[in-house]
Structures are given as C-alpha cells and as structure tokens.
Specification:
By secondary structure, this protein is α/β, with parallel strands linked by helices. The chain folds into two domains: 319 residues, ABC transporter type 1, transmembrane domain (ABC transporter transmembrane region fold, Up-down Bundle); 215 residues, P-loop containing nucleotide triphosphate hydrolases (Rossmann fold). Helix content is 60%, strand content 10%. It contains 20 helices and twelve strands. The protein has a six-stranded mixed sheet, with helices on both faces. It has a four-stranded antiparallel sheet with strand order 2-1-4-5, with helices on one face. It has a two-stranded antiparallel ribbon with strand order 7-8. A hairpin with a 2-residue loop joins strand 11 and strand 12. Helix 3 packs antiparallel against helix 11, helix 7 packs antiparallel against helix 9 and helix 10 runs antiparallel to helix 11.
C-alpha cells in the first residue's frame, strides 16, 4: 500500500520519494523558485539605478527601458509563481489521491474486530489527517525549503551594498525567530488538547446521529443537547487558543516588516545625508530587507504549525499500523464452489475478557441442502453467519467451504459465491439500479431480472424516475423498510450464489412480499446451499434439516436429548455453543 511506503521511513521526506513523479515535480519547483528569486532582484536594482544615475542626469530614454525591463521581470515573476502554484497543486492532488485511497483501503482491509475497537470518529480523524499533510508536504514545506536559502542571498546583497546596514536584518530576524522559539511549545500543547477534544466531539456526533430515532423515541433531546453543549464549549475554547497561536506569524510578521524598513532607514539615513551612501542604495537595501524577511516569516509560520503535521503524521501512522485481514500474498479464494459448509471444532469470542459465543462447534451441511436454524437474537446466529463468510476468524478450529479452510485464503471477494442477507438491508448513495447491480454496469441486465423476480417492478414504477431514482444517506430511514429489503435481496441474487445465508431477512416484509419470497425459496431449493436463520415456521418447513439454538447449544428438534460434539466431521454433527 502507498501509505505503508510513505510512512516506512521515519524521516519526514524519504517517504515522499515513493510518490509518482516526485523527482520531476521537485525539479520544476526548484527551477521556478530559482528564477522567481533572481527576478525579485529586478525592482531593487532598478530603483537604485533610477535614484543614483537616471534622475540626476535626466536620462529619459534609459528610464523608459529600465521601467519596461523591470515590469517585464515582475510579470515573468508572477507567471512563474502561478506555474509553481500549479505544480504544487498537482503534487497535492497526487498525494491526496494516492495516500487517501490507500488509507481507506487500509480501513476496509483491517479485521472487523480491530476496526470496532475505535470509534468511527477516530477513523475519520485519521483519514482527515491526510488533508493536513497534503498542504504540509505539497505546499508549505517545499516553499520554505526552496525560498529560505535566498533569504541569506538577499542579506549578503545588503552586505555587499553597505556592510553597516546588514546588522539590521540580522537583528530583526534573530528577534523574530526568538519569539517563535519562546511560544512554540504553547501552540503544540493547545493543538494536542484540541485534537483530543475533537475526537470526543466527533464520536459523540456520530453516535447521536446514528441513534437519532432512539433519542427521539425516549425524548432525550434535551440531555443530548446539554452534553454536546459542554463538548462544544470545550472545543470552542481550544479552537480559539489554537487559532490565536497559528495566526501569530502573520500578525507579528507585519510588525517586524515595519521594524525592518524603519531600522534600515534609521541606520542608513545619516549615511545618505553625509554623502557616504547614495539614496538609491538605501532604497534597494530597504526592499531587499523586506524580501529577506518574507522566507523567514514563512519558516516561522511553518515551524509554529509543525505541531499540526506531527499530529497528522502520528494519526496516519496509527492508520497504517492497523493489521491486515489477509497477509500479502494470500491466494484468492477459488472461483468454483460446490457449496458444502463445515465447521470443525470452532471456538470464537470477540475479546479475551468476554465469554465464548461459539465453543468447539462441529457441524457440516451438504452442498445444495437447505438448513434452518432458529433461536433468539442473543445466541450468536449472526456471528455464525459472519464466520461462514470469513468476515470473522475463529479463535480455534476451522471454517470450510467445500474443502477450503477460509483461514488459508483471501475471502475478500466472495460476491456471487456466498451472499449474506441481513435482517435490515442497507442502501448506498446512488440510483436504485446501481444499488442492485452494486455499481457495476456489467450487471445491470441481471439486476433488472433479479428485481423483477422479487416484484420490484411494480413498486419502482410508482417512483418518478423508476430504477434511476436516487438513493441518499437519508433513504435508509425514509424509504419503506419492505422496499429496502427487497432491493437488498435482489442485489444478492444478481449473480446466483452457491451459498446463501439468510438472517431473518423477511421480518420487514409485508404478507404479499413474503409470499413472493417463499415461492422463490421453493424454486431455489436444491440449486444452492441455503442456510436459513429464522423463526418463521413457513420458511423452516421448507428445510431439509432444522436446528434450534437454545441454552448455548444446537439441538435437533427431533432428538429428545442434546447430542455431544463429535470430532469426526465427515458427517453432519451437532455443535455446542456457550
């Protein structure tokens, strides 16, 4: 992943060499910066010549040509600055795209248990850190590095013109940097505090908005508002402190620019009056002093905001350190699948300090069989489905599809071979047909067929734009749950799966939709392996085998006693859950 290459080296700059076209961009920036700073000498030199020679001799023609040349230099300098900004913008865009995609890929590739240890707000903050580093690497840092050496060239030019005047920029710049050295620690302290407060605030907002229905149903608006008021007050105070310190370079820089100008005038004025220095030289040194301070001022601002970059880099490192669900080089799961399912002495729990949800479970289902599992929501049926899909990894034992142990294969792309129908379907931003086809244009025809199979044509026909009706983030709350569930089920059958995991997906359906769904299962029976997690007798009656999850065990309803776990998994066995 690009994020790994970028952060592999502990230095701030080494990782940037992994970005595409980095060397060419640096050469362009260096060339433009060199030309810009050389051209910036045109105005001081022109003014010096005008005051010292042209005005005294009335050389009008020479004045015209000097003004024309100076204006051309200023225009060319402006063009080069725009070009340099364009190059920096492209560097920022490449950094943002490459590292941003890699960061989201890392989040999607981390195990589900690891992802859920941190709040969603924490992950969002980590991804948002890319914006801070983007401006830091592609903007500030290169401008400072490339322009800073010319500050010393401008100071050397002042020394060349008048050695006494060089003391003024040296003193002003020294005092300027001393102020930042004195107060920089305060900015870093406030910035770290701001990050911690924002993490808590973002997590609260996400939790609040995710559970807005529960908040309204329990009339908790006032309590939630008071809690957010306290968080927002702390965030506002922290933001005020950080903003104050971050604007210090701009506010103080203007003051020191004035000090620079009047300091040079105060020191050089007497020399002009006694004739030991010309007015043109004083004017040129005044301009050069201001130009010498500009890169130093930028460096001071960069130094002050360096805490932002350090915090952002730390957040990005935390993101890069998230473990991968599959190690690089893990072979992709085989395309062909018969549909046999087997658990061999599987044990699972979400954390070491929590009890086992599954312990020493051994059970197998033949290919193309239809198996029913009933039980309450608290006995681990959804966890069992996640294990069969490879989303969760067992603590011990093995989960097999056919003879393939999921632990040895990359199961990130099982779409079309194993599908999971949750109790509550989820739609993504896009059109209805995009949601059914999973945003793959190749599947649109099959998606329309699957939608018609589940009776979506009539429902969607009542919408103004039909299947092109756009779904938004609010649609999961505003659209009828029966329609959402039908869309989710049609999506699962765009490519006929070899294994279907049905997790109480018919709860939100009306009677007519459930009849269509029941008829579909009758036709699917014997063509795919279907594992029905349901308490509906009309669905369970279709199954070849039925199990009851109760009291921490899987019980065959036809048996009068609990059958113990068998180590031999060549045949179907009962499992024990605890």
């Amino acid at each position: 992943m690009a994020i790994d290459n970028f952060l592999k080296d502990s230095s701030w700059f080494q990782g940037l060499r992994t970005l595409p076209h980095f060397g060419e961009s640096i050469r362009d920036l260096l060339s433009s910066s060199l030309a810009i700073n050389i051209l910036s000498l045109a105005l001081p030199i022109t003014l010096m010549q005008v005051y010292d020679r042209i005005l005294g001799f009335g050389a009008t023609t020479t004045l015209v040509w000097l003004v024309f040349g100076c204006c051309s230099a200023i225009l060319l300098e402006t063009v080069l600055r725009l070009a340099r900004s364009h190059v920096s913008g492209w560097m920022a865009a490449r950094f943002d795209h490459l590292v941003g995609v890699s960061a989201v890929e890392r989040v999607l590739s981390t195990p589900l248990q690891v992802f859920e240890k941190d709040g969603v707000g924490v992950h969002l903050e980590r991804i948002y850190a890319i914006n801070t580093l983007r401006g830091f690497y592609a903007g500030q840092i290169f401008q400072v590095m490339l322009d800073l050496p010319f500050s010393f060239i401008f100071i050397a030019t002042i020394w060349f013109l008048n050695a006494k005047l060089v003391l003024v920029p040296i003193v002003v710049i020294t005092v300027f940097l001393s102020i930042f050295a004195t107060f920089k620690w305060q900015f870093e302290k406030n910035r770290i505090e701001q990050g911690q407060i924002n993490d808590r605030r973002y997590n609260f907002i996400i939790e609040l908005l995710s559970g807005i229905h529960l908040v309204k149903s329990l009339s908790l608006e006032e309590q939630m508002l008071r809690r957010y008021d306290r968080l927002q007050a702390s965030a506002a105070q922290s933001n005020m402190k950080v903003t104050t310190w971050s604007e210090l370079p701009t506010n103080i820089g203007g003051l020191f620019s004035q000090f620079m100008m009047f300091g040079i005038i105060a020191v050089g004025g007497p020399a002009v009056m006694d004739g030991s220095m010309t007015l043109g030289t004083l004017t040129a040194c005044t301009l050069l002093g201001g130009r010498a301070l500009q890169p130093i001022q930028s460096a001071g601002g960069f130094w002050m905001r360096f805490a932002n970059a350090k915090m952002a880099r730390k957040q990005l490192q935390e993101l890069a350190e998230l473990p991968l669900e599959f190690e690089p080089g893990t072979p992709a799961f085989p395309k062909e699948l018969e549909g046999q399912v087997k658990l061999d002495n599987v044990s699972f729990r979400y954390a070491q300090e929590t009890p086992y949800l599954l312990q020493d479970v051994s059970i197998s289902f033949a290919a193309n069989s239809m198996v029913g599992i009933s039980g309450s929501s608290a006995v681990g049926t959804t966890t069992l489905a996640y294990l069969l899909m490879g989303i969760l990894k067992p603590e011990s034992g093995g989960v097999y599809l056919d003879d393939y142990n999921l632990a040895h294969w990359n199961t990130s792309d099982l779409h079309g071979r194993i599908e999971y129908l949750p109790q509550n379907g989820v739609l993504f931003s896009g059109s209805i047909i995009d949601n059914i086809a999973m945003f793959n244009p190749i599947n649109r025809a099959a998606a329309l067929d699957a939608a018609a199979l589940f009776g979506l044509d009539e429902l969607v026909a009542n919408l103004a734009q039909g299947y092109e009706t756009m779904v938004t983030s609010q649609s999961n709350d505003t659209m009828p749950t029966g329609l959402i569930q039908k869309i989710a089920i049609a999506r699962a059958f765009v490519i006929r799966p070899r294994i279907l995991l049905f997790d109480k997906s018919n709860i939100a359906m009306d009677r007519e939709s459930e009849d269509v769904f029941l008829d579909f299962f009758k036709r699917m029976k014997g063509r795919s392996t279907i594992i029905l997690i349901s308490n509906q007798p009309n669905l369970l009656s279709l199954c070849d085998e039925q199990y009851l999850m109760e009291g921490g065990s899987i019980i065959d309803p036809d048996d009068s006693k609990l059958m113990q776990v068998s180590g031999d998994t060549s045949h179907r066995t009962k499992g024990v859950f605890s």
